[in-house]
User: Fold this.
Amino acid sequence: MKMTLKHAAALLPLFAACYATAADDAGSKAAPKLPVVTVQAVTTEDSSGYATWVAMANEKFKAAGGPDHFTHVYEGIIAGEETGAVFAVRFADSAVTLAKDSAALMKLPERQEINQHLAAIRKLGPSIMLQAVHFEGGYDGEWILVTDAQVKDEAAYLKALGELRALFDSNGLKDIKINTYRVIAGRSNHTHEVVISAPSHERCAAMIDSEASTWMTDWLAGVASVRTVVHNGIYHEISK
Assistant:
């Protein structure tokens, strides 16, 4: 996620269009079918103010007939050089839909004023586009562990992630969701990105604690032959 979440500021706009909010109290998002996502890195010293203006744009866009919560905002929490970095993420069911939604957003009457406020507090960085190859959904305000990797055999890697799903389910981590994306544009140092979503900081920590367990160390050893980890980190959705 090194490049992805950095470039997730744009990608953060990436989660909104694809996430339909479920009706449960936990705020779980239903999993759409293999979405396309864009992530753009954003440099700002006012992440809260940035998230506020993005939220305003989301509201105006929804009122004009656009998707609910089109742009999501994430911040690096424990993410190496991406700690404190902000990302914008957008989801759609296809690249065509994402392009149409992005074009419609730019035509909003209020867009110029909102862009002026955004321009005063942020600079846009690199962006990337990803295609989901396995998608379970996420949570509003989620905490995520993102792993960027060079994958040698996608089919074998997805099979291994299916085994991880079963291990999570049998070890008290059924609420942890696994999402996997292939980088399709803007690729630099990784081919795939795995985003493991938790509904809270505590549940994300519980998932991370599981890495010390025998079942997880065995799984990590087994998957090492098909992937090389480039970067990982913990991020939090700060969308408003």
About this structure: Residues 47-63 form the longest helix (17 residues). The domain at 2-237 is CATH 3.30.70.100 (Alpha-Beta Plaits).
